[in-house]
Design goal:
Layout (H helix, E strand, L loop, with lengths): L3 H8 L6 H12 L14 H20 L1
C-alpha cells in the first residue's frame, strides 16, 4: 500500500508537469475526470495515476 506522503513526493518531484497534475486533480474534484474507458473516476489514487501518466506523456512528447 502506498502512503499519502510518498504519493505527494511523487507529485511534487522537480521536473513534473505541475500544471497538468493540477488540471487533472481539479477535474477529479469537480467529478469531470474520466478514465480511458469513458467511465468517471471515483478513486483518488486512480486520479493521481492518470495525472502522473499524462504528465509523463507530455514530458516524452516535448523531447522529440
Amino acid at each position: 500500500m502506498v502512503s499519502r506522503a510518498s504519493v505527494r513526493q511523487q507529485i511534487m518531484k522537480p521536473g513534473r508537469k505541475k500544471k497538468k497534475i493540477k488540471k487533472v486533480m481539479g477535474e477529479f474534484k469537480r467529478k469531470k475526470l474520466k478514465s480511458s474507458s469513458g467511465k468517471k473516476v471515483t478513486k483518488r489514487k486512480q486520479a493521481i495515476a492518470i495525472a502522473l501518466s499524462e504528465a509523463r506523456r507530455k514530458k516524452r512528447k516535448g523531447r522529440k
